[in-house]
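Exercise 7.
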Amino acid sequence: MSLIRKPRSSKSSFYEKAGFMPAFSFLQMDTPGNSFSQGLLYNPAFCKNRVSAVSMSPESSLSSPSPATPEKTHNKSLVYRHDIDGLRALAVFAVFLFHAFPKYLKGGFVGVDVFFVISGFLISSIIFTQLENGSFSFWQFYSRRIRRIYPVLITVLVACLAFGWFFLLSDEYLQLGKHVAGGAGFVSNFILWFESGYFDNAANSKPLLHLWSLGIEEQFYIVWPFLLWLAWKKRFNLFTVSFLIAAVSFALNLHWYKSKPGMDFFSPQTRFWELLCGAMLAWTNLHFRETLLPLKERMTIFFHRIIFFGSEKPDEKLLSHVLSVLGMLLLVAAVFVTKEKGFPGKWALLPVLAAVLLIAAGKDSWFNRTVLSNRILVWFGIISYPLYLWHWPVLCFARIVKSEEPALWIRIAAFPVCILL
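Solution. The predicted structure, written as tokens, is:
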């Protein structure tokens, strides 16, 4: 009887069974150059512990790794995404164009929703990673937020008070003081909620109207880190926690957008789901990549057969390109959403899904690489926060001084003025 071991027969890969030769590993997770691994959050340490694409390791299971066993977590590192800054630039352009030329870009206000998704993705990625490697600190988190938010914010608030002293009536200046206090305390959305709607004509005379979005974002980050930390300590699945809260928030949004439009627009409860979509994308990227590989393989084959003819090997970046183009199309469609359609409501899904798809597509996907990673767009994305804070006071005070809609050249000139500020 021969004791020689027979060579193990190699199984046909998924792509070979599907008729594509030769087979390749979908979006190869251990290849630094691929669009998905670099595109979302490339993890160098992950390459040392490669797991089969069709099996789940303890690290990638649906259960969160225990804080008491850091050796079972990945030493994840975050990489800079030029295309995300480019997406920020498009978002702030849309908001500016809506405020300066509302007749030509009626849905430009959806840029704020794109900001929410980006913020939820980036900040939650940091929190998730730090929780897993045991480096999360509430002090460091909130001190970073303060250093990022307050310097420009205080400058804008002081400038509005100084300018308003000369050009506002007494009752208008009193209202401005209340809005300055609300902006500094991140409760502008509640103040505006009880005053009037975002799209009312009276809103054109409120220089700090736009701070409602900053209020919602900071209210989210007052609650979110504590909730994640508590859920992590209790060993709850953070994706499940995010999904459940997002589902409740979105349900409230659908419930109130017709009967209570002001509440639906300004309430944090009806807006948190947008930031949580970014958070769920961050968790998916960190933990579900291997689990989703079979689905991605099938989707790549599906789109390859729809777009191309023949049985040649599918491009491993095809799915990323498709997601990128779909995100771009949704973003274009979103800017045509008008106030008459009841925003946010279900229409908020357009910009939110657009942002999710564009971020998930990765920096090497077609639209992200050719458009969003453009140096000019990236530069505007880097200054998008101060640009957002300055743009509405400049436009609003121009309207107040002229006592009517400013001339076209004034509204055009407002943009470079905001850049200089």
